[in-house]
Amino acid sequence: MQTFIWRQYQFDLPDDWEMLQFSRNPELGSCVFADRRQFRFELNWRAVQGTPDFDRMLYDYQARLEEDGLQGVRRLEHQRWHGVRGEAGHSLTTRYGRYIAEDRSLIELVFIWPKEWDSALEKRILDSFRLIVPEEGLVRWRAYGMDLRVSAGHELWKADVPPTSAELLFTAQKGYRSQCFSRFAMAEEWLTLNPGDWLLTRIPRGFRIDQQTRHLRDGHEIFSARGLRSLPTVKNMFLGRREIKASAWICPEDKRLYSLVLVSTNRVVEAESRISLRCCSHMEVNP
Predict the structure, then answer these.
(1) Which are the contacts of 251, defined by CB distance < 8 A and separation ≥ 6?
(2) By Cβ atoms counted within 10 A, which residue in 5, 167, 259, 278 is the most buried?
C-alpha cells in the first residue's frame, strides 16, 4: 500500500494504483486512479454549508444509478461511511459518502471491481481516510513520489506530471509568491551539470543570485542558492521585495534529482522557508 495526501485528504491505496487525473479546485474536484488495465478508484469532494441528509441523498442517488443502468443496487454501511453497490456489465462498483465537519466538505469514494469485490481491501482504504490539518502553518501533500510541506494559504496552481518526473507549483498573492517542488528520474541519463549548476537554470528570470552553498547531510549532497529580485519595482513597495531560495540534490537511495524553489517577500520569507521536500525516510530538505 502507498499513502496519498491530496487537498489535506490522506488515504492508502495499492502500490499499483496510480493517479491519472486530478483537480486543483479546493471547493469542488476529484482525483482518479487506475491500475495497469483500467480505472479503479475515484475521490470526489465538494464544499457544502452543513451536514447533508444522507438518507434522502442516498435515496436519490440510488434512483439515479438505477436509471443509468446499474443493476442490483443496494445500500452499504461501514463505520461513518454511507454507500451503495451495484453491477454494470461485468464490473461491480461500490460508492461511499461521508461528511467531514472540520472543513465542511462532502466526500465520495468510488471503487470499481472488475473481477471480484475485495471487501477487505475496500474497508482498509475506507479506514485509512482522514483529514490532515495544517501544522504550524504548513500543509502536507504526498503524491507522485514526493512528500512535501507547503505554506498554508498557498493554493495548487500547476501540476506537471509527464512520465519519469513530477512538479507541483503552489502560489499566493496571484502568483507573486510561489513554492515549487520537483522530482526527476534517471538523472544519470540526462543530467550533464552538477545539481548546483543545474539549479541555476531553474531560477526565474529577473532574479540575481547572491549566495551559493553546498553541504553534506546523511549522505546527501545538497546545493542551495539565494538571491533577490534584480531591480525593485513599484509593486515591491506594497507587496514587499521578492527573494528567492532554492535547493537541489540527488537522493542516493532512489538516484532521483529533487529540487524546491521558494519565491517569497522580505516580509515573510523566513516563515515560508520552513517548507520542505522529503526524498526518503531520513532526509527532509528546506530551501
Answers:
(1) 220, 258, 279, 280, 283
(2) 259
